């Protein structure tokens, strides 16, 4: 074991593993790769800003301090960190990869695995919370906030352990024949284990949502107000789950193919970065889904933009101009004209007490 960890600072190990698993090595940046990297970084910056707005909205408005919104905030936090991890991964990819030590490489890839794990466990927590709320099972007592925070903390702890297993020793250093082609320092067995766990969790989430749907349909056959809000909420979380599966299914498939293919026998594995780039769209779309489906959250997320518009309008009047033509000054109520601000979150929570 000591000899294994002694290789973690060996600067030639990464090159050795990439040379064994890859047909060609990227030793210099090309214009096309630079353009692709710039596009990915721009996309990730958008992800960070979007999810930061959601987190700020949830944190500063006491109406959103309920179970459902806290779990959505946790999912937004994992998406935000995923954007940061993807930026670091992009900047340290290409010819920079071969200059990394194994411990740096494990940190680069492990951060992405940790944020992915956190997203999956956040989706599971949301599904469990919805099932408990719909089934009207009292899980949370007076200390529900403490319990929710413990659950969120436990999900991150499990994610850290799962993403940190390779740096703790479950890797293929010294065993080139056991290495993944997509992730050349990871053992194929580890990659298969992670994909299997994620797939099982997603299957469990689907089962929970099917059960929730059956309970809602049987309890609200007349589709009264509460039933319609519950179905609307079910539609929202189902969209979030569906988008996650749609975005990550190609990446999971390429990792499963990686396990099945002997080294240098599946050329498609050398294009795996395109599949992972597509998967980053999940973190971009989640905040759009939240704000599109919840009027209250949309108001709160767009409030900084409204303040910016008012500030631009005031600056324009001070300069003797009517303001920027593309930034009209509107009242905060213009987002939902004629609709008063409700006293409680109207969509994601509905009339459900959690």
TrEMBL record:
Organism: Tupaia chinensis
Annotated disulfide bonds: 172-179, 261-266
Cell location: Cell membrane
G-protein coupled receptors family 1 profile domain residues: 50-290
SMART domains: 7TM_GPCR_Srsx (SM01381)
InterPro entries named in the record: EDG5_rcpt (IPR004063), GPCR_Rhodpsn (IPR000276), GPCR_Rhodpsn_7TM (IPR017452), S1P_rcpt (IPR004061)
One GO cellular component term: plasma membrane
Gene3D superfamilies per record: Rhodopsin 7-helix transmembrane proteins (1.20.1070.10)
Keywords: Cell membrane, Disulfide bond, G-protein coupled receptor, Glycoprotein, Membrane, Receptor, Transducer, Transmembrane, Transmembrane helix
Region of interest (Disordered), residue spans: 314-354
Regions crossing the membrane: 35-58, 70-92, 112-128, 149-169, 189-210, 231-252, 272-292
GO molecular function, one term: sphingosine-1-phosphate receptor activity
Xref: PROSITE patterns: G_PROTEIN_RECEP_F1_1, G_PROTEIN_RECEP_F1_2
Pfam families in UniProt: 7tm_1
Membrane topology: Multi-pass membrane protein
Family that this chain belongs to: Belongs to the G-protein coupled receptor 1 family.
Broad class of the protein's primary localization: membrane
Protein name: Sphingosine 1-phosphate receptor 2
